[in-house]
Write a structure and sequence with these properties.
The complex is a heterotrimer. Chain A contains eight helices and twelve strands. By secondary structure, chain A is an alpha+beta fold. The longest helix of chain A has 32 residues. Chain B is mainly α. In chain B, 66% of the residues lie in helices and 0% in strands. Chain B contains 16 helices and no strands. In chain B, 68% of the residues are buried. Chain C is 77% helix and 0% strand. The longest helix of chain C is centred in the C-terminal third of the chain and has 38 residues. Chain C is elongated and about 70 Å long. The termini of chain C are far apart. Classes of the chains: A alpha+beta, B mainly alpha, C mainly alpha. At the A-B interface, α1, α2, β7 and β9 of A face α3, α5, α8, α9 and α10 of B.
């Protein structure tokens, strides 16, 4: 009956061991302190129990050295845990540069995943071992939280912006996916499985998908034309709208004098509410696409925009367009 | 209460100074208002406890077979709302603080008796709003009311419940403000700050948090109601609003609110340890300033509720550091209480059992708090049962242990009656055992990955859930026993005398129950906890 | 301690001084809670202003700066009459006190009247979020945020003005009866603190909502 009680879920990612290590060490520290306190309380209250009805305690008012000691000692231990915890935290929240990007849209009450090659899954996610995987996420409705206990990571999934998490699976198997942020009636039904496979099994699984799939980038390019984005955001000229080549990750000079980092959330905002942050040198002409593009299509559009590079051979024009568009190639305004 | 027989001495005390319902509902006496609060917070505690019991019952099996998800979500939400806003926050300040602070500073009443009564009426009105929402169909947002679920998606009575919380907030503000003025201006001549009991220091720190934090939750809940009720755009992401702003504003109050709950309990524990060791508290000034330190630092740690909500990683680092820092003043208190026992005269009376239990449980609650503030651990255990276990160790293991201990200690002062020693000691031990059995398995479950607020769960968690439910049953018995013997002590009185514990402290210098104006003659000012061989208080 | 208790000394205070000091301290504490109350709103305003400067400029352009400035002057004048009222209470000049309280009340009503005209203008121009909000210029999505905050902030401020006016009406009969003397004037003093606080809130609201971002 009790074999199902374990102290930790399966450790199945490169970082899960690190999280477990700091957890076990802090459990140990806590245990030591708890034992000391319990022992002190029990021992002292038995040793100094009241022996006759009108006995009073010895008037001791304190000891400054002791006070300093038991303030400084916890402080030092705290500094140690803080430093270690922060180091692990930065590993958890900074995906390696070579990560493969997957997409996830949360909605009441399901998880929709998309692989880099366009494969879509609901409440299931197949991933290969041995390679860092970054999941970029957004929500269609309320706040959710994508949680992989076996990878020891989670991140809230918010409507109207993008968040991301990453992991590198190490151990093939099936593990839980949970929604960790309360999201309504079927919150406890917003669960799924992550299926970790060896790279070879994963390739086979991808190849076995029968439905014709389009990669997010290809889908984004299709939408870019279908929604007529291309008529204004042309690569060769930048007259009506700023060119988008090499935009991602740069700082953009705005018409009101400020700058903004061109990340996923900014591009999303520029599609849905184009006149909130107008690029310097342009008029607020663009119509809003709010309500016209679904969340997963938005992700595809952004995936495509991230890939647009300046056309070869058109360097001077491109550079001029870039300058006109208000961003510099070194990323500073 | 009206049938209370006159005590043998036939002296006029606050209980027999008028009998009709008007003498209670229009009373300006802080002691009677405290009794009004005692009745109302006990009602809400029972109600919140009932919801907790139903939640635990549902979680016996992995399938959601007792209630549907809608009912379950309403149950845990109402449990949280009622316990946090209508029991834990008012419990110790409004009952024990209200009764004792004027006695402890040697005053005839709080500075503003009318405002004190008003605060009770506001509390009742807020409670009625929330009860009304509950009867109409309840609320299913969780006690945290996160947007945009609460503003745009929930089909429950969010606005009515929110208004209940909003209104009750004012009762908390008025209580805090009354305490601060009383402690500043109403001390009997000669009673310097460092002669005050630590209970008063703790309530001073609590009051600061009440007056600085509560207005922020008030405006936050108001904005939420305006958005949900009138379509204003404040947190709505489809109109450019930021739902995480709600979380910041919410936790700016609701984290310090944890200190509103636990600081008064710490004040109670200081009194109990001193009284039942017959000794001054070790490191009085350190314990006093630790209360203020916790109150101040408590205001800059709210971001630790948002480590995985998309807040900047650097902000998380700062909040992590500050949150851990709260451990230092908390540790100071724990060590000083333990050291007070050294060479004391320790009596195992019921209140002392609660106090010793508090030290143990709060130690575990505090240490797991440090673990949660550790960024690398929190990412995994955030929003799991680990968090649930942690805050129950602080709120139930801390606040309720302190409240029960205080109630047992001052019950003879408040009513002039004694309760049965055997049953009360037994129930203190039942509470300790039941509590640990309920909540310790939840730490393990949490690290295993069991998310909170789940109606159904994977079967591997069942054993731990069954243990937890079994513990909750024992805990329920532990809370039922005092209810029975406290009521019995009113019906079949065993008179306690004026000072059954032979404790020092200004509240024990008057009769039990005290006369309407508290003191017949001006009380004698001494150092706090002045126990001496053959001295005052020891006969 | 005076040998015979002043008729207005509450039973639980020892002296009138203790009673007055308690009231004044309480009033300051109350104002601290008020600052925290508006503080939450100001934080929301600052965050959104920083995120959406263009929309906030556009939104504030539509506010009537002349009416806002007029109301600012009205409130500053009412602070002056209030201060003179407190002075009159301290010196126990019954008629002057009554006069200044009435003047303060009238100025308060003028402010609320102008505010009502402004609100009506927003209604006529479809600028009430959630009702029938329409905005043709750029940044319409976030202009709603501006107007939501505008109504939340000025609405709560107006509510404080209404409560203040109610308190004047409540205090007036005892002003007329001459209850406030050099010995006992702290109700008027505390009310004055409240009134000045409400004015100061407006002194912050006016530039934040009407002036910032104007060219």
């Amino acid at each position: 009956m009790f074999e199902s009680i374990r102290l930790a879920p399966e450790s199945a990612s490169t970082l899960s061991g690190q999280v477990d290590a700091i957890y076990y060490v802090s459990v140990l520290i806590s245990l030591v302190f708890t034992v000391i306190i319990f022992f002190l309380v029990v021992f002292l209250s038995v040793k100094y129990r009241r022996r006759h009805a009108d006995q009073v305690g010895v008037p001791i008012h304190g000891n400054n050295m002791l006070e300093i000691g038991w303030s400084v000692l916890p402080f030092i231990i705290m500094l140690f845990l803080f430093a270690w915890g922060t180091k692990v935290f930065f590993s958890l929240c900074r995906p390696p540069a070579q990560s493969t990007e997957y997409y996830c849209v949360g909605k009441q009450w399901m998880w929709k995943f998309q692989h880099p090659d366009g494969h879509r899954e609901i409440n299931e996610l197949h991933v290969p071992t041995g390679h860092p995987i970054k999941i970029t996420m957004t929500s269609e409705d309320v706040i959710h939280s994508l949680y992989f206990p076996s990878f020891r990571t989670k991140c809230d999934v918010l409507p109207g912006r993008y968040t991301s998490l990453w992991f590198q699976p190490t151990k093939p198997g099936e593990y839980h996916i949970f929604c960790a942020e309360y999201c309504g009636t079927q919150h406890s039904g917003m669960v799924g499985r992550v299926i970790v496979q060896t790279p070879r099994e994963y390739e086979l699984w991808l190849a076995g998908g029968k439905t014709s799939t389009m990669t997010p980038v290809a889908r984004g390019e299709e939408l870019f034309t279908a929604l007529a984005c291309v008529t204004c955001h042309r690569q060769d000229t930048a007259v009506r709208g700023p060119g988008l080549a090499g935009l991602f990750g740069k700082r953009v000079q705005l018409a009101n004098g400020g700058t903004v980092l061109a990340d996923e959330t900014y591009i999303r905002e520029s599609i849905l509410s184009p006149n909130t942050k107008v690029v310097a040198g342009f008029q607020p002409l663009m119509p809003t696409f709010q309500g016209q593009v679904a969340e997963d299509d938005l992700m595809s559009l952004i995936a495509y925009i991230k890939t647009i590079q300046p056309a070869a051979g058109a360097v001077p024009a491109g550079a001029a367009a870039l300058r006109r568009a208000g961003f510099t190639t070194d990323g500073t305004p | 209460m009206t049938q209370t027989a006159l005590s043998p001495e036939q002296h006029v005390d606050y209980l027999n100074d008028g009998y009709g319902w008007k003498s209670w509902l229009f009373t300006l006496d802080h002691k009677r208002i405290a009794m009004l609060y005692l009745v109302s917070v006990s009602f809400f505690f029972a109600l919140g406890g009932l919801f907790a019991g139903l939640v635990r019952l549902e979680l016996l099996t992995p399938q959601g077979d007792l209630f549907g998800p809608d009912i379950y979500n309403r149950l845990f939400t109402m449990h949280g709302v009622i316990m946090v806003f209508f029991f834990l926050i008012p419990a110790i300040p409004a009952v024990l603080g209200n009764f004792l602070i004027p006695l402890m500073v040697g005053a005839k009443d709080l500075a503003f008796p009318r405002i004190n009564l008003l605060s009770w009426y506001i509390y009742v009105v807020g409670g009625l709003f929330t009860l009304g929402a509950m009867i109409a169909g309840g609320v299913d947002t969780g006690w945290t009311f996160y947007t945009p679920f609460s503003t745009n998606y929930s089909n429950s009575y969010v606005v009515a419940t929110g208004l209940g919380v909003f209104i009750t907030g004012f009762s908390s503000i008025l209580t805090g403000f009354n305490f601060i003025v009383t402690i500043h201006r109403m001390r009997v001549p000669g009673l310097g700050w460092f002669k005050l009991p630590l209970f008063v220091w703790a309530h001073y720190a609590t009051s600061l948090v009440m007056i600085l934090g509560t207005p922020v939750i008030a405006v936050t809940v108001l904005l939420l109601a305006l958005e949900r009720g009138f379509g204003l755009a404040i947190f709505d992401p489809t109109r450019g609003g930021d739902p995480v702003l709600f979380q910041h504003l919410f936790w700016f109050y609701s984290h310090p609110a944890v200190y509103i709950m636990v600081l008064p309990a710490m004040g109670v524990i200081s009194e109990l340890i001193a009284a039942f060791s017959r000794k001054s508290i070790f490191g009085y000034k350190f314990v006093a300033f630790a209360s203020l330190g916790i109150a101040v630092v408590g205001f800059v740690v709210w971001g630790h509720h948002m480590f995985v909500s998309g807040q900047s990683a650097y902000a998380s680092v700062v909040f992590s550091f500050l949150s851990m820092f709260v451990a230092v003043p908390s540790a100071i208190k724990i060590f000083n209480w333990s050291a007070t026992l050294y060479k004391g005269s320790v009596a195992y009376e019921t209140p002392m059992l609660y106090a010793l239990g508090f030290i143990g449980l709060f130690t575990i609650g505090g240490l797991t708090g440090v673990m949660l503030a550790t960024l690398g651990i929190d990412v995994h255990v955030h929003d799991t049962y680990f968090v649930v276990a942690h805050f129950h160790y602080v709120m139930v293991g801390g606040t309720i242990m302190g409240y029960m201990g205080g109630l047992h200690y001052w019950w003879p002062k408040m009513t002039g009656r004694l309760y049965p020693q055997f049953w009360s000691r037994l129930s203190a031990m039942i509470v300790f055992v039941g509590f640990n059995l309920t909540f310790f398995p939840q730490f393990i479950m949490g690290y295993m990955g069991m998310p909170r607020r789940y109606h159904e769960y994977p079967p591997e968690f069942q054993v731990l859930h069954v243990m937890s439910t079994a513990g909750a049953t024992i805990l329920g018995v532990g809370y039922l026993l005092p209810t029975i013997y406290f009521i019995m002590s009113l019906r079949k009185p065993v008179h306690a005398g004026n000072n059954p514990w032979n404790a020092v402290g200004m509240e024990w210098q008057t009769t039990s129950p005290p006369p309407t104006h508290n003191f017949v003659s001006t009380p004698v000012v001494t150092e706090a906890y002045a126990y001496a061989e053959g001295g005052q208080g020891v006969h | 301690m005076s040998t015979e208790a002043h008729p207005l000394l509450a039973h639980h205070f020892e002296t009138l001084d203790q009673q007055r000091e308690s009231s004044t301290l309480a009033m300051w504490i109350f104002l601290v809670t008020e600052i925290m109350f508006f503080g939450g709103l100001f934080m929301a305003y600052l965050l959104y202003r920083w995120k959406f400067p263009l929309a906030f400029h556009a939104g504030s352009h539509h506010l009537d700066i002349r009416l806002g400035a007029f109301n600012t002057i009205v409130l500053i004048c009412s602070s002056l009459t209030m201060a003179l009222g407190v002075r009159a209470a301290q010196t126990g000049e019954r008629k002057k006190l009554t006069g200044f309280m009435v003047l303060t009340l009238i100025l308060g009503f003028v402010f609320l009247g102008v505010k009502a005209i402004e609100y009506h203008d927003k209604f006529a121009h479809h600028l009430i979020p959630g009702l029938h909000f329409q905005w043709d210029g750029p940044g319409g999505r976030e202009v709603q945020l501006f107007y939501s905050l505008y109504f939340a902030m000025t609405g709560l401020h107006a509510l404080h003005m209404i409560i203040g006016a109610g308190l004047i009406l409540w205090l007036l009969p005892s002003c007329v009866r001459g209850k406030y003397t050099a010995d006992y004037y702290h109700p008027i003093e505390c009310f004055g603190l409240y009134w000045h606080f409400v004015d100061i809130v407006w002194i912050f609201l006016f530039p934040l909502l009407y002036l910032l971002g104007r060219h």
